[in-house]
What does this fold into?
Amino acid sequence: MKKSLLLLLLIFSSPVFSQKIIDTIASKSLDEDREITISLPNSYERQTKQRFPILVLLDGDFLFDPFQGALSYGNYWDDLPEVIIIGITQNKNNERSADCTIDKTNGLPSEKGERFYEFIGLELIPYIEKKYRVAPFKMIAGLDTTASFLNYFLFKDTPIFDAYIAMSPEHPSGMEEQIPDRLAVITKPIFYYHSIGDGDSKKMRNRNIALDELAKKIEKNSLYYKFDDFKGASHYSLVLNSIPSALYHIFSVYQPISNSEYNDKIVGLPSGYVAYLTKKYEILEKSFSLKIPIRVNDFIAIEQAILKNKAYNEFSDLAQLAKKYYPKSMLADYEMGQMYEKMDENSKALKSYMAAYQREEIGDLTKEMLLDKMDELKAKLPKK
It folds into this structure.
């Protein structure tokens, strides 16, 4: 755990995100001004057509920096996408207590809690959507009191948030049953993450463990669920364990193809390796509104699966994808050359490699490498 804390402390000093913007919303629901902190991705001004997922942080005073640090670090390695972060200030005068007021008889937000709930859904989200290029995908996160409060957004007919990060939630009695019941009937895709640590109270640990037991029984493809119980973690240190775990869970499809994804999900397929790659990036666009070119390393992973399973005909489809995303590079002709070479059509393979040689190098694919392959093929051709 000490290594994890040190890593996060180091990445907080990395200037990967843009500068913080302090803004104020004149809230009619709350009848007061509320301060928010916003961080836009570094590429926001550069990629003028790109829309970005948003992350709303309750307890933004102290959750903003650790979330920003984890997202910065993940994005540096192309593991996590760029995100617009909105932190709500709730701890200057202990506003979080009144913001999360719950009626003890029915367990629903009441008094200022009800007004704060309306502020988020009816004022904050529309304000951000109007002012910035926001993707449809929305996340919300909180700790203990606010972590419990964020669950009430699940109970709207159509939840406005797609992903929920509840760290050490202090649920009122009965919520450990109501949340799984609600998760079971929501029709839209939902990402739900919650966590506890050894330092949490026994009562709250038991409620979250009971919630987990019920949620694990839900069988539906549209629910992406994860629970962590961090051993040796205090109520507060679990935050630095929870944040990367939650973000990597939510954005698992965004990450480049890893060894585990290759071994567990791809290489064992009977066919459809290129279709798997296409679907991976279609999900990114559909779920997160992220339009990114297929990574060169992902092309290589699919290439290896094709070779291992001797599905050489799929090289043609892979070449079409390469031509679409990297038209000036040698990748498309190289993939066609591999298909012909593996099918013992050496003359056609040589022509494809020669065509590739005329184009731009990409990744580890170099002209020198192609020259070696062409020399090998020439030696195999019948002498005139």
